[in-house]
Design a protein that fits this description.
single chain, 401 residues, Growth Hormone, Chain: A, 2 domains, disordered C terminus
Length: 401
């Protein structure tokens, strides 16, 4: 397999196994609450435990990829995902289920770093925004597939079968990446020599941090919107089922918008305009949520626009990392980026929820999505200003910081 688009398709499928496993808890939440005798807060913790290891694992995982090769570390990560899935399947109580989620999250963090590095290697300088956006679309698609299939599977069989299925899907990803992935032509080769790992220079650290904040806030805006909007719709008088059905419009539009944003950026060369217009539309649209009449088609149209607008910048922001990282520093740089990203996604939703508690209404959290998206646009602009102040990386002192 030497065609870069075939490689991208492979990486999308493998990354979707990570999203599928992450979304499994949400998909079968009623069954978990009953079988494990847990409350909603504990269920939420079980969801988030999958992401927590990324804070600690992403950076050393990236460094390990530079030494042993991204394919090898991706295989290790997928094997750990299999183990975590089997632990969760075997759980008869909350403790083992939580442990399984943490173990699986360790593997998923390694997979996420390595697969992102692979996309960067294959598409550096050629349609990067399109490739990265298509790659990122695997996240909502994997979660959607989990929501579509796992609840009926749990009803027909058991939670053991559900979580064993997530392990089997991860095992299939392992076979695919081990059998068919090929290193990109010209990509730096891994070196197993005992030497100091590639370290980031000061300029890379600064620009990766700015881009990471932009990406995390953009992602958190969407997560906040879809997490709290159903609660606001119920508060506004809809039934829980009707609220969930209406709110689901945004994620489906989001899944379309992620690759669309990257393709538009590459085709038009107006990446900056796409990001700033998308941020503005999202901010204005969120502000209109309490003003739109409850009846009619307008609420659905507005949610479709919000899902699309909040998705368009994703691939563009992520592709900034290619511009600010030396090829040999991509593994370490991606590890640093994902450390910040996981930390942001772990911290922001609880903070927004606390604001909603203080305000006494979920509408405060929904409106918080507008603040997050505006902040993402600001940090994107700041990153672009930093890139424009001189050579991207070349010519900067390469002494490690």
């Amino acid at each position: 397999m030497s065609n870069r688009w075939a490689i991208l398709a492979l990486l999308v499928v493998v990354r979707a196994t990570f999203a599928f496993q992450f979304g499994s808890v949400s998909a079968v939440s009623p069954f978990l609450i009953h079988d494990l005798a847990i409350d909603y807060a504990t269920l939420g913790t079980l969801v988030s435990l999958y992401l927590l290891p990324g804070i600690a694992v992403s950076m050393p995982g990236g460094i390990a990829g530079g030494r042993f090769g991204e394919q090898a570390i991706a295989v290790v990560g997928l094997a750990i995902m299999v183990l975590g899935g089997l632990m969760t399947a075997a759980a008869e109580g909350y403790a083992l289920a939580a442990g399984g989620r943490v173990v699986a999250g360790v593997g998923a963090a390694l997979v996420n770093v390595m697969l992102t590095k692979m996309v960067m290697d294959w598409f550096a300088g050629r349609e990067m925004a399109t490739a990265m956006a298509i790659f990122l679309s695997s996240w909502p698609l994997g979660i959607a597939l989990a929501l579509l299939t796992l609840a009926p599977l749990a009803a027909a069989t058991s939670l053991f079968v559900v979580f064993a299925t997530t392990a089997a899907v991860a095992a299939a990803g392992l076979v695919l990446i081990a059998s068919f992935y090929r290193r990109a032509p010209g990509a730096p080769r891994a070196s197993r020599e005992k030497r100091s790992p590639i370290r980031l220079i000061k300029r890379e650290i600064w620009l990766v941090a700015l881009a990471s904040v932009a990406f995390s806030f953009c992602s958190a805006a969407f997560v906040t919107l879809v997490s709290f909007l159903p609660l606001y719709l119920v508060e506004s008088g809809r039934s829980a089922a009707a609220a969930a059905q209406l709110a689901s419009i945004a994620p489906w539009a989001y899944a379309v918008g992620v690759p669309l944003g990257g393709m538009l950026a590459d085709r038009t060369g107006r990446a900056n305009a796409i990001v700033f217009v998308s941020c503005a539309v999202t901010v204005i649209g969120v502000g209109m949520v309490p003003l739109v009449p409850a009846a009619g088609v307008l609420p659905g149209v507005l949610l479709g626009v919000l899902g699309l607008a909040s998705a368009l910048p994703q691939g563009i922001i992520k592709s900034l990392l290619v511009e600010v990282l030396r090829p040999e520093a991509r593994s370490a740089g991606l590890g640093f980026h994902l450390t910040l990203h996981y930390a942001g996604l772990t911290a922001i939703p609880p903070a927004v929820g606390a604001i909603a508690d203080l305000a006494g209404t979920p509408l405060a959290a929904v409106l918080g999505a507008a603040v997050l998206m505006a902040t993402a646009g600001l940090f994107y602009w700041w990153t672009r200003v930093g890139i424009g102040r001189g050579p991207l990386v070349a010519g900067i002192s390469s002494s490690p910081s």
